[in-house]
Amino acid sequence: MCGIVGYIGDKQAAPILLDALERLEYRGYDSAGLAVRNDEGIATVVKAKGRLKILYEKVDGGRTLKGHIGIGHTRWATHGEPSEANAHPHISGSSSEDSLVVGVHNGIIENYVELKEKLVKNGYEFYSQTDTEVAVKLVDFYYSKFKSPTKALSKAMMRIRGSYSLAFLFKDHQEQIWTAKKDAPMIIGVTKDEAFIASDVPAILKYTQDIYQIGNCEMACVEAGNVHFYNIDEEEIVKDTEHITWDLDAAERGGYEHFMIKEIHEQPKALKDTYNSLVKDGSINLAKSGLTPDIIKGISEIRIVACGSAWHVGMVAKYVIEDMAKIAVQVDLASEFRYHCPVIKKDTLAIVISQSGETADSLAALREAKSKGVRTLAILNVLGSSISREADHVLYTLAGPEIAVATTKAYSAQMLICYLLSIEFAFVRSEIDSAKYQYYLQQLELLPSSVASILEDKERIQWFASKFSTIHDAFFIGRGIDYAIALEGSLKMKEVSYVHSEAYAAGELKHGTISLIEDGTLLIGILTQNRLFEKTVSNMVECKSRGAYLFAIAAAGHYNIEDIADFTIYMPNIDEHFIGSLAVIPLQLFGYYTSVIRGLDVDKPRNLAKSVTVE
Ligand code: G6P
User: Fold this and answer.
1) Catalytic annotation on 221?
2) Domain residue spans in the chain?
3) Pick from 408, 382, 411, 403: nearest CA to 394
4) CATH class of 253-445
5) Is the shortest distance between the CB of 189 and ligand 1 below 6 Å?
6) Is 151 a catalytic residue?
7) I want to staple 73 with a disulfide (CB 3.0 to 4.6 A). Which of 104, 194, 563, 596 is the partner?
8) What is the pLDDT of residue 385?
9) Domain at 456-605, CATH class
């Protein structure tokens, strides 16, 4: 939530900052702002409420803001409504020109009320409702006292509770951008004559693929062509760069109308790349993560924690792992995990699933699991993210940068890793023999082409979405893995198209929800599991007799479903453990097309942000 960028170098800063912010707009889009210092040393701040394009127009694409150094911000409101006053950058003085400190922030400062009181007692006045203004003025307070950016930032870091990545321009240090970070993302890229800071890789991929990660409670002084890192004790620390293999094309729309549809189409590649990274010469190789057969044999139970779609992946994983590897799996919402005082058995493996690796609740759940002394494994897409640095073992999905707020390709790649874990765990623990092991891997190899074949038929879903684009409600049902897929289908629908939707375990319908079914209500049944097929069909029939319109997603062969369903899509043949990865594709397309037909901003749905770094 919220995106930060910074530039210093031999070019005009404002156009570069705007371009970088555009690539971070998925992190927040209710207001935006820039601070650029000109060659006379005067910093100008321009802010605008609403989408980045309003700011863009206000500064004529950056042309009205001259200067080679600047910081920028795109906001997702936490403290204070979306408004120009609350937009970042924030200033420490009465105007940007006379401010000692100008800053931007991503995260939440939990004790901002207490800090504000202290600052008010010291004569500071506040113009916004944000916690960020408090941070900027706190840094100003310490800077005025100690005249040193490292001292001011370290003092401020010691006083601030919460999460932050911060970037500052100091009036007295005209050729530097200063940053500080704790539990919120921040990367730095340095080229020969320039340097960049950003909340995420796509913002600066155009300029460099070698990035520095700034660690928790660390600071950095960024200069053109140079960066120095310091710990909270103000001691200089040396860091190496990491090479990012994502290329710029992956972060561009590449001819597609939206990132979401582009990313839906990238799923065969994401699946193939992720598979090839972990399967070599016909066997699964988890060596990179450090998960050895001995560790796998010792696992007594698995706890999966995640948020949003990643939690839905956990739900699928539960069904697959329990059936295949016979290990008990509990799936918890990361936001609930630490608040229900989880009882975690010794030898539990806690698995955190997260695309960004920055989701605040998932990070907190990881820490909770670690505090209970259990082994942790993270399944992540973003290299070097906060969760990657704290988990005992990490496996990466090779989905590439995911820009659309609603996840698709990262979700699919996460699911693939869960399948591989399940197969490996089952084999190592002698629940399956090598013939079965090979069979499962062969089935997984079919996934990319099967997904591609469903995508080829996308016009049917487009047509269906146009027919139902004005609906108010949609209900998704299924049992077992199909229920887990229903959860994801329903979320896709509501988050991008704003159609109220609910997912139910089919057997639960009769305990209340069926009272909502009336003439024309859309009911989507997922029917990929042979042994559950007839049961879910019965539930669908019960709804049809109360007027529901039935859309069925069924495994190939179950052609008699057409006797009751009004619209049916068949999935290509694949082992039932993995067929959820196919059934979700029409549901992603259905959500996408409904949103497009309703004229909504599919990549940036209202009120949502891709990376939720606040609780
Ligand atoms: C947001 C995104 C979802 C994502 C969830 C968890 O809500 O819009 O697509 O599933 O966060 O994010 P993570 O980065 O932890 O997977």
Assistant:
1) no
2) 3-244, 253-445, 456-605
3) 382
4) alpha beta
5) no
6) no
7) 104
8) 86
9) alpha beta
